[in-house]
Amino acid sequence: MTEQELTDRVLDKVAGAPDLRFRDVMLALVKHLHGFIREVGLTQEEWRRAIDFLTATGQKCDAKRQEFILLSDTLGVSMLVDAVNHRLHQGATESTVLGPFHVAGAPMLPLGADIAEGEPGVPTFVSGRVTDVGGKPIAGAELDVWQTDADGFYDVQRPSLGAMRLRGKFTTDAEGGYRFRTVKPVSYPIPTDGPVGRMLEKLGSHPYRPAHLHMIVSAEGHAPIATHIFVAGDPYIDSDAVFGVKPSLIADFTEHAPGPAPDGTRMDRPFCDIRFDFKLSPIQP
Amino acid sequence: MTEQELTDRVLDKVAGAPDLRFRDVMLALVKHLHGFIREVGLTQEEWRRAIDFLTATGQKCDAKRQEFILLSDTLGVSMLVDAVNHRLHQGATESTVLGPFHVAGAPMLPLGADIAEGEPGVPTFVSGRVTDVGGKPIAGAELDVWQTDADGFYDVQRPSLGAMRLRGKFTTDAEGGYRFRTVKPVSYPIPTDGPVGRMLEKLGSHPYRPAHLHMIVSAEGHAPIATHIFVAGDPYIDSDAVFGVKPSLIADFTEHAPGPAPDGTRMDRPFCDIRFDFKLSPIQP
Predict the structure, then answer these.
(1) CA-to-CA distance for B188 and B225, rounded, in angstroms?
(2) Is the pLDDT confidence value at B146 over 80?
(3) Which terminus in chain A has less CB density within 10 A, N or C?
(4) Tens digits of per-residue pLDDT, A106-117?
């Protein structure tokens, strides 16, 4: 049996799958998986190491850690899946990786609220509008926001907290406007104490993500979007460990000396403000 | 950023890996992984299910169960890796999957010994010679043999046994000859209570392997070989769940009425005998 005959036998078997979409996905998977192995002439020892790596990756996963998503992120797979699923949304705000730190059920807060609640960090005022792709304001759109603290950790990475922090949901006003206060996000490494960290090391790659705010923006009749606002000038802006940066998602976090703040209060220390508008696509038919 | 630009950015990063072999393997992996995703237009929901599947596969593994090897086996990957690593061994006995049930340290037994030790099943006498590819006998070659019991289970799948069973090592005599007694192996399903079982079900494929004896044959100065002897006429001989069958590895388990046996004893019930010769390659320079 030649190598190609073997591949053909596997393809013949997969071709019998009754679910036609599953069949097509598996046919392409087998074709590429076998193509990869033939192309590199994968050795038995490399195969064993791959089995060990995949096993360790699965076993590193628990309720708060998803090492396979991290693997997908660091190989650009998550961004590619995002890209192939948003091929039609021209004109809308671009999406990027969801990441593993979104938590359902963040508190619904009034516009202007502070999600940082006294956390250390540079106070930052975020505002903008949510519109459709034609620029028409969308009232009642929801922004689900989350981010790291000033040390680069999400609340779920600090189990001792026992509560949500630096998360909140906001609803746009009649003009599609939103505004909230927070602290400036910082760049941070993805977790490196698992198999993916060892892979990055062997790749000679750093594990850092440039500073960003996460949000899912959604509104009735429109396609929801999971995206980031990246901090312009971040040292990792051109080398995001998960390939999440798109130029349209980078914003100036303008720094101000102490004085009047955008929310009408007076700040006694330096602060940032940033304006970012979101454009949502209609739901695809 | 277009889909191709994204892939190029990932390839650029991987191209910086200091280990050149690792670099080449990872470049091919990223190329095929991204190619697969673009080709099928993998949806976010399919991606999530893939993440869940891989995670569950890793978490199903323990000291006695290797679900990723099972996945590799059932997608023909193990056989393909075997094939690409034995491209040069023309004329030698063909190899096939090692499988997950080999255990180091099986007992060294005298030629002619019975590895079945009173197990139920059809008594079977196995014999043959180990030679080099030119047909010259190899004295002192080792056969490490293992197989299922008459119910289709390996000893390690019956934890209550607490001991090895249906395993043994034999050393060829001055003419390269070997012989041992056992029971006829039976076809059996690979474990289906994990993610791979669910995949096979969705593929509409059965999980059975045709009946076979496992062995690793090794001798000084020669390339060791992990292979099977398959039972001719098995109902699954053309549809092995792990694609392990090669025509050259199928042997007639000839059935005999009660009477004189190959080892000089007299059998009071029907028995099989089978002759199979192994040819080993010189070690590649």
Answers:
(1) 23
(2) yes
(3) C
(4) 999 999 999 998
- Which residues form the domain of B48? 3-79
CB-based contact B228:B96 (threshold 8 Å): yes
CB-closest option in B35, B41, B61 to A55:
B61
Sheet order of strands, A212-218 included: A167-171, A142-146, A212-218, A225-231, A250-251
Rounded to an integer, the average pLDDT of A86-102 is: 83
B273 three-class SS: strand
Is there a domain that residue B71 lies in?
Answer: yes
Kindly report the number of other CB atoms within 10 A of residue A259's CB atom.
10
ipTM: 0.88
d(CA A29, CA B241): 18
| Tally of domains in chain B | 2
* Among A51, A75, A81, beta carbon nearest to B44: A81
Distance (Å, whole) CA B143 – CA B170:
5
Which of B79, B108, B123 is a domain's end point?
A: B79
Instruction: Identify all chain B residues contacting A34, using CB atoms and an 8 Å cutoff.
Output: 76-77, 80
CATH number of the domain residue A111 falls in: 2.60.130.10
Q: Which of B51, B79, B107 is the last residue of a domain?
A: B79
Predicted TM-score (pTM) of this structure: 0.88
Q: Are residues A102 and A27 in the same domain?
A: no
